[in-house]
Amino acid sequence: MDSGSIVVYGGSGALGRAIVTDFISKKWTVFSIDFIPNQEATSILLEKNDTLEEQNKRVIGAISCKVDAIVCVAGGWAGGNAASDGKKTIVDVQSIRPIIYSSSLLIVKMTNICARGYLFASSEMMWKQSVHSSLIASHLATKSLKPGGLLLLTGAYPAQRGTPFMIGYGMAKAAVHQLVLSLAEHDSGLPDDVKVNAILPVTLDTPMNRSGMPNADFSTWTPLSEVAETIFKWASKKEPAPTGKLIEIMTKGGKTTYTPK
Q1: Backbone torsions φ then ψ of 33, nearest 5 degrees
Q2: 101 pLDDT exceeds 50?
């Protein structure tokens, strides 16, 4: 496929911008859904105080054409264990822009923040950012994704096991994992032959991760351009996309592997 069209939910975050840039460079039509515009794409702006239903109506009403791929990389990170009482303000990822925090190294560095996050505020925020966006992207796929197209969501490598000091984050990402498994089943409501999966990066090479871990081994971090290019290969059918899978993304010595689970 030489050209096509894609919706990037979270198109103004670090990974979202990389995806938008990659597809624009290949002459695709790109729609970016986010709270702030992406000047490279056709931007669909969300309102921070919208309910789930209101946000869905805003998205559905803005896209009237059929597209080849829908990619949801919206989300964020906040900590808090079951005893967290709000002594520390949680990370407001709406204001700093969504970044995928999936590194065990980063988790260790931020444990002192996690323990002081507020359980209910952080859990509610994570649910809205990860689950609501994924649910709306999935519903949009039932209306606007072409048969045989790609629906890609974003899970989290740590959410495959317990996440005791970031309960809200782990719970929300585990829900995204379950959503992918459900969407891949017969009668899920998706168009025929749609490929649906979730990416689970271990560590993405973002400016924020570098500032937080300046002495880390960057050869084990996955470049955003690498992920964007792989998504392009799946969306354009240059490579077969896994379906019904959670895809672990790991980089060692500068080489990135994609392992469907």
Answers
A1: -110, 120
A2: no
